[in-house]
Amino acid sequence: MEWTDEGIVLGVRRHGESSAIVELLTRGHGRHLGLVRGGAGKRMRPVLQPGNSVRAVWRARLDEHLGYYVIEGLRLRAATVLASSHAVYGVTHLASLARLLPERDPHEDIYEMLDRTLDDFDDIGEAAVHLVKFELAMLAELGFGLDLENCAASGETSDLIYVSPKSGGAVSRAAGAPWRDRLLRLPAFLRPSGGGSNGWSDQDLQDGFRLTGMFLLRHVLEPRGQGHSDARDGFINAVTKYRAKVAVP
Predict the structure, then answer these.
(1) Can you list the positions of beta strands (E) in 18-164?
(2) Which of the residues 4, 15, 204, 213 has an alpha carbon 20 to 30 A from that of 195?
(3) What is the pTM of this model?
(4) How far is CA 164 from the centre of its chain?
(5) Is 14 helix (H, G, I), strand (E, B) or coil?
(6) Neighbours of 169 (CB within 10 A)
(7) pLDDT digits (tens, 9 = 90+) for 49-83
(8) What is the pLDDT of residues 86-102, one digit of tens each?
(9) What's the CA angle centered on 118, arms 113 and 123, to 5 degrees?
(10) Domains of the chain
(11) Known Pfam families for this protein (predicted)?
């Protein structure tokens, strides 16, 4: 058995004296592990860092075997990522989300979205927006997508500013007014209109993380006996501190 694919490094663990077991999210073969001979050595260590994009050749005698990787670096983001705490937390959290996908099951749209998200960590606010959208996409990929296109109560498609915590459906301003204290807020950057080029505020970021966080816990994490990763909390705290700092006149 042999295939060649592009992948994103999710994690690495040492195996023996010099080898490493590498976990990739690949474009066409999903989340896939393989053994890299010499993967713990100095030459390969910079390549096998979480968040890096690589080209991988996987070989095994049988498809169900762990197999061996031969890996070549394509975009080595790790050096840039390590320069900022929010990016370190963000990449770690994104990897933990990708691990929710079943092994060896292709999810090309998620791969493409992860690739774009990892390329946009320079701006901390935009990184936060992309991370919320990635969490939302993961909910949909795992079968728990939220309906944010139409009002769950009236069917309207405009002025959607709330989300029902029960159904996960959007709710319009008018329909949600009597129950606004019980509804989740739908941030501007998740509305059908998109909110424009600067369509988010600090409150929007908080609302976005609260929204996706609640549904991830309820539908995905708690049924598996898990909670949110420490990296998610670290990323949110880093964003909050940074935004508070730059807001000081």
Answers:
(1) 19-26, 30-36, 53-59, 68-75, 147-151, 160-163
(2) 213
(3) 0.93
(4) 23
(5) strand
(6) 17
(7) 999 999 999 999 998 999 999 999 999 998 888 78
(8) 999 999 999 999 999 99
(9) 115
(10) 2-77 (2.40.50.140), 84-148+186-247 (no CATH)
(11) RecO_C, RecO_N
